[in-house]
Design goal:
The protein is mainly alpha-helical. The protein has two domains: 2-20 and 135-196, Endonuclease Iii, domain 2 (Orthogonal Bundle), CATH 1.10.1670.10; 29-130, Endonuclease III, domain 1 (Orthogonal Bundle). The chain has helices at residues 2-16, 29-38, 44-57, 61-65, 69-75, 82-99, 108-112, 119-130, 139-147, 156-166, 172-185. It binds iron/sulfur cluster (SF4).
């Protein structure tokens, strides 16, 4: 049942959000990696505002490894958690230089070894940076998938596993974007707009109270 159901849901969401995709602005896979790390608990708009200036001067792992930590904290203070993100970005840049010849690896398990990179970031890097199958689960994907009854999960890792089991690989990246767009616009965390929702008839509305 779930597979058929998910097909229909993705069809409807694709029609609703034909332009769904990442809104992060980047010029290389390394810049994308920095932007995705910065995007945790922040919005793409905030990240783009910060990186528009940041990437003018600092573009490569070498540039970031050479940056003074407090200077980097200052440069990214427009996003939340700037201290821990600055620390991770610096350590990430150093590791890329030392162990990956300054290149971002196009491999899920290698990406996970980088400081500040979790499963969501690694999935997004594969999908957006390397055009490979990846289905990152952030708070929107997790919430929307549970409410729609596509998964029954209390954590992002389980949601990722369950979604990957019912969505064909070639649709992983697209599904990630569609669920995020729907979660931001309609299936909002606090007050989902069920009456305006294109999925209303299909949705069991498993809404946590
Ligand atoms: S019907 Fe409500 S709970 Fe279901 S996807 Fe739409 S907004 Fe979310």
């Amino acid at each position: 049942m779930a597979v058929k159901h998910v097909d229909r849901i993705l069809e409807i969401l694709t029609a609703e959000y034909p332009d769904a995709g990442t809104m992060l602005v980047f010029g290389s896979t390394f810049e994308l990696l920095v932007a995705v790390v910065l995007s945790a608990q922040s919005t793409d708009v905030q990240v783009n505002r910060v990186t528009a200036e940041l990437f003018q001067k600092y573009k490569t792992p070498e540039d970031f490894a050479a940056l003074n930590l407090s200077k980097l904290e200052e440069l990214i203070k427009g996003v939340g958690l700037n201290k821990s993100k600055a620390k991770n970005i610096r350590a990430m840049a150093e590791k890329l230089i030392k162990e990956y010849n300054g290149q971002v690896p196009a491999d899920f398990n290698e990406l996970l070894k980088l400081p500040g990179v979790g499963r969501k970031t690694a999935n997004v890097m594969l999908a957006v940076g390397f055009n490979q199958p990846g289905l990152g689960v952030d708070t929107h994907v997790h919430r929307v998938a549970n409410r729609l009854g596509l998964v029954d999960s209390k954590n992002a890792d389980k949601t990722e596993k369950e979604l990957k089991a019912i969505i064909p690989q070639n649709l992983w990246s697209k599904s990630h974007n569609l669920f995020i767009w729907h979660g931001r616009r309609v299936c909002k965390a606090r007050k989902p707009l069920c009456q305006e929702c294109v999925l209303e008839e299909l949705c069991p509305k498993n809404i946590e109270r």
